[in-house]
Write a structure and sequence with these properties.
17% of the residues lie in helices and 35% in strands. It has helices at residues 21-31, 37-49, 65-70, 100-107, 125-136, 156-170, 206-212; strands at residues 8-15, 77-82, 87-92, 112-118, 141-147, 177-182, 225-232, 244-248, 253-255, 259-263, 267-275, 280-281, 283-285, 289-294, 305-308, 314-325, 336-341, 344-357, 364-365, 376-389, 400-404, 411-417.
């Protein structure tokens, strides 16, 4: 299968404390030669000060002073690197239960989540919790890295036991593609280079797996959704009558001449042109940024959505959602918040909290409905004006939103529409 060299893959790491997430990313960056010389010198000096004989690979991602002092990951650390085959954005997320919101933030746009398991401990509660969140966020691909294989003498038997453990509980979750790789992040076994110590494992190492993972089909190519971000009126020679609607195609494919409907107004037209900065296109597909012109003069503005007439989203004011609460202040039902859905900004309120989810046991808590930071709950949202929505499982862009506090302007929650 041919991979587009410019194709971007976003992945996130998850696992319990000290499972080696930051070390794994450090090893990926180090062995793939994605570290600048000045960074390497700085990390080498810091490692010596900490008493390491070699390089502490975790320091490549644990950028906060608190993280370096405690030896843990607190915030979401983003790192970027490129190989000849693909571009990558890594979100190194915390393993602690009190930082659930950070994992949700880092994983919300990921194509892949890498779940690390300590080979000595096997599948533990936090492993299940991270797998559940990955499933909740509908991350298409899960790679389970059984780490610290060097500490169990590279035992194939223990690796297979852990694999069976994970498969037993993950069968209840929504996960399309789960892969397993035995690794040692510290020594580099099966991270970038194939391990000689794990000769019983015949599949590709981690980096090769990431480079060749097919992600093009992860994007919804059926439901054309084009949220309008702004209207372009150049008012200069050659473009005096030009009126284009600019934005990013959230999903689907749009072609020149397609019959489209502008929502929520319901007015219809056909696509006159699809333009980019350099030239015009006969078709565009998600997630391209484009400008569309229509054959009819219709009032279209930011927050509207252009869709194919024969395939439209739901237009509703009240809907159910899985909500992750991100703020220190507790949720206030019946209080007005600003909801940001694609480019559409409205007022909204939490009408009802149906139940919270215990992310350790997956049980529903129907008695205690108070939403505090890091809580995940099923709630009913009502907006002042209709939104054009799809279910999150069908479209991660038009099926998600954030809530903003009108007083502090802080983002207080992220939601996935059911």
């Amino acid at each position: 299968m041919q991979i587009d060299n410019n194709q971007l893959l976003r992945f996130t790491t998850a696992g319990s404390v000290d499972d080696g997430k930051s070390t794994l990313i450090g090893r990926l960056l180090y062995d793939s030669k994605a570290i600048f010389e000045d960074q390497l010198e700085n990390i080498t000096l810091t490692s010596k000060r900490k008493g390491y004989d070699g390089i502490d690979l975790a320091l490549f991602t644990d950028g906060l002073r608190d993280e370096r002092e405690q030896g843990i990951t607190i915030d979401v650390a983003y790192r970027y690197f490129t190989t000849p085959r693909r571009k990558f954005i890594i979100a190194d997320t915390p393993g602690h239960i009190q930082y659930t919101r950070n994992m949700v933030t880092g994983a919300s746009t990921a194509n892949v989540t890498i779940i690390l398991i300590d080979a000595r401990k096997g599948v533990i509660e936090q492993t299940k919790r991270h797998a559940f969140i990955a499933s909740l966020l509908q991350i298409p691909h899960i790679i389970v890295c059984v780490n610290k294989m060097d500490l169990i003498d590279y035992s194939e038997e223990i690796y297979n036991q852990i694999k069976v453990q994970f498969e037993e509980f993950s069968s209840k979750l929504y996960a399309k593609d789960i892969r397993f790789i035995p690794i040692s992040a510290l020594d580099g076994d099966n991270v970038v280079n194939r391990s000689k110590n794990i000769d019983w494992y015949h599949s590709a190492p981690l980096l090769n797996t990431l480079e060749n993972l097919h992600i093009s089909s992860d994007i919804n190519k059926i439901d054309a959704r084009f949220p309008v971000q702004t209207v372009l009126r150049p008012q200069r020679e050659g473009f005096i009558d030009y009126r284009g609607y600019a934005g990013r195609l959230a999903s689907g494919i749009l072609r020149h001449g397609d019959h489209v409907t502008v929502m929520p107004s319901g007015f219809t037209s056909t696509i006159k042109s699809i333009d980019t900065m350099d030239h015009s296109l006969t078709e565009a597909f998600a997630p391209m940024s484009i400008t569309i012109t229509l054959n009819d003069d219709i009032d279209v503005g930011r927050g509207d959505m252009i869709v194919k007439t024969a395939n439209q989203p739901r237009v509703i004011q009240e809907f159910d959602t899985m909500l992750c609460w991100l703020n220190n202040e507790k949720a206030k039902p019946r209080t007005k918040y600003t909801i940001l859905h694609t480019s559409n900004e409205q007022k909204a309120m939490i009408k009802n909290i149906m139940y919270k989810i215990d992310i350790n046991t997956y049980n529903r808590e129907k008695e205690n409905k108070e939403l505090s930071m890091n809580d995940i709950a099923r709630v009913k949202i009502r907006t002042t004006r209709p939104l054009m929505i799809d279910e999150y499982r069908d479209n991660r862009t038009t099926g998600s939103f954030i809530l903003i506090d009108d007083v502090t302007h802080e983002t207080v929650a992220a939601g996935m529409i059911l």
